[in-house]
Amino acid sequence: MFADFLKRLTAPEPQELDSTDARLALTALLVRVARSDNDYSADEVRKIEEIAASRYGLSQSDASDLRVQAEGLEAEAPDTVRFTRAIKDAVAYDERVAVIEALWKVVLSDGTRAAEEDALLRLVASLLGVSDPDSAMARQRVSGAD
Question: What is the reported pTM?
Answer without folding.
Answer: 0.81
